[in-house]
């Protein structure tokens, strides 16, 4: 061990500068370092308070350090942590049971992230097509501006070239169509397509809801060609859009659904849900993961789903959504030089920057952060709001006040 770390490693003083010294520079985090949180409240190293309207990129939907989740995971920590996939465990069996009972699916596969869930979905789709139709049916169709993860396969399927530059050669037989463009879909989805993967609401691509007619057309084209329809609900799932999963809002049922982010409220877990017929093409040894479905992650997710998948809880999400949309509409009207009209669904909302301020979404969020409000971006042109689903009316009002102050400060320069 390095001499300077021989004692007191767990209490080693660290700052934001430490990130630049010891971590691979794949991120450019904020200057402040959060150290404590509860609900939607966050405090940094200096003791400054922030209202968190990011929920860890639509993850901590029940709030930071949710007492029920803390209690559940503490009990599991003192019971059973990890077994490996040579054994099953009670929490994962209960989690699979509750998810299949609540959705179209018959089977669940658990992993550690949304990227892994999408990787599993795409591998399964190709395996299914290869077995049922032959190796010629292998092409995958995705949408421009989509985001499906950072593995080489999923980042290639995502329709954003900035994430694939320098990683060539990329996996083959992947094509991209314009989002919400039915004619583009009809041209691309032919008999050699194994899977069509789509976000029912694009998150990283700018918070753009899928047109119901477009999503229905994808379903019809998949039925016609024998392709599997995969809904990536990593960001939109587990209550974020006011239903347990957004496919329930749009009335289009996929063949495979992927879930992560809010499923674990900050504890890493991902899930791929599908039908009996499709699941059988993943036989023993054809896919796997060391940590997927471990008792700790499954316990957290089980309690998350039980809390969120209640009519009263989802009704409150839709109520809070209506109030937040109304606030943002008024904000846009009051600052037309700064913002366009809000868009999105539930508590996943994008606020586009107005024409004269395109590319400056990050500048605005930095201004809001200085005033005590944590916000996200969805590309350079869109401010993204994804507060915990337990956000109160008082917190909505406080966020509106800070956003207005931030708008004034932003305009003043």
UniProtKB/TrEMBL annotation:
Its EC number is 2.6.1.11. It comes from the Bacteria. Its main location: cytoplasm. N(2)-acetyl-L-ornithine binds at residues 150, 289. It is found in: Cytoplasm. It catalyses: N(2)-acetyl-L-ornithine + 2-oxoglutarate = N-acetyl-L-glutamate 5-semialdehyde + L-glutamate. It holds the Pfam family Aminotran_3. PROSITE patterns: AA_TRANSFER_CLASS_3 (PS00600). The keyword Membrane does not apply. The keyword Amino-acid biosynthesis applies. One of its GO terms (molecular function) is N2-acetyl-L-ornithine:2-oxoglutarate 5-aminotransferase activity. Homodimer. May also have succinyldiaminopimelate aminotransferase activity, thus carrying out the corresponding step in lysine biosynthesis. Belongs to the class-III pyridoxal-phosphate-dependent aminotransferase family. ArgD subfamily. This is Acetylornithine aminotransferase. The gene is argD.
């Amino acid at each position: 061990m390095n001499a300077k770390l021989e004692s007191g490693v767990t209490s080693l003083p660290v700052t934001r500068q430490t990130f630049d010294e010891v971590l691979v520079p794949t991120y450019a985090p904020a200057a402040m370092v959060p150290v404590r949180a509860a609900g939607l409240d966050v405090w940094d190293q200096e003791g400054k308070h922030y209202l968190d309207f990011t929920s860890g990129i639509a993850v901590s939907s029940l709030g930071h350090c949710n007492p029920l989740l803390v209690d559940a995971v503490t009990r599991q920590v003192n019971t059973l942590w990890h077994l490996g996939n040579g054994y099953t465990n009670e929490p994962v069996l209960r989690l699979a049971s509750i998810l299949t009972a609540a959705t179209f699916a018959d089977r669940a596969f658990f992993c550690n992230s949304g990227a892994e869930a999408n990787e599993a979905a795409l591998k399964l789709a190709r395996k299914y097509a290869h077995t049922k139709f032959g190796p010629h049916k292998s092409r995958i169709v995705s949408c421009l501006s989509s985001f499906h993860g950072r593995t080489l396969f999923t980042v290639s399927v995502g329709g954003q070239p900035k994430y694939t530059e320098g990683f060539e050669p990329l996996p083959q037989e992947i094509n991209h169509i314009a989002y919400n463009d039915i004619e583009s879909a009809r041209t691309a989805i032919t008999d050699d397509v194994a899977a069509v993967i789509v976000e029912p609401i694009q998150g990283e691509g700018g918070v753009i809801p899928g047109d119901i007619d477009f999503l229905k057309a994808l379903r019809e084209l998949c039925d016609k060609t024998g392709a599997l329809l995969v809904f990536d609900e990593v960001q939109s799932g587990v209550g974020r859009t006011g239903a347990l999963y957004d496919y329930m809002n749009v009335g289009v049922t996929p063949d495979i659904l992927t879930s992560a982010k809010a499923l674990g409220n900050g504890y890493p877990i991902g899930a791929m849900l599908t039908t009996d017929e499709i699941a059988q093409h993943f036989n023993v040894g054809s896919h796997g993961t060391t940590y997927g479905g471990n008792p700790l992650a499954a316990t957290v997710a089980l309690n998350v789903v039980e809390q969120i998948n209640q009519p009263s809880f989802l009704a409150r999400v839709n109520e809070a959504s209506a109030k937040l949309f109304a606030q943002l509409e008024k904000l846009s009207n009051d600052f037309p030089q700064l913002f366009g009209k809000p868009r999105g669904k539930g508590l996943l909302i994008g606020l586009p920057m107005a024409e004269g301020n395109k590319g400056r979404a990050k500048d605005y969020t930095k201004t809001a952060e200085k005033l005590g409000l944590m916000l996200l971006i969805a590309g350079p042109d869109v401010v993204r709001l994804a507060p915990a689903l337990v956000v109160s009316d008082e917190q909505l009002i406080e966020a509106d006040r800070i956003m207005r102050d931030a708008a004034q400060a932003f305009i003043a320069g």
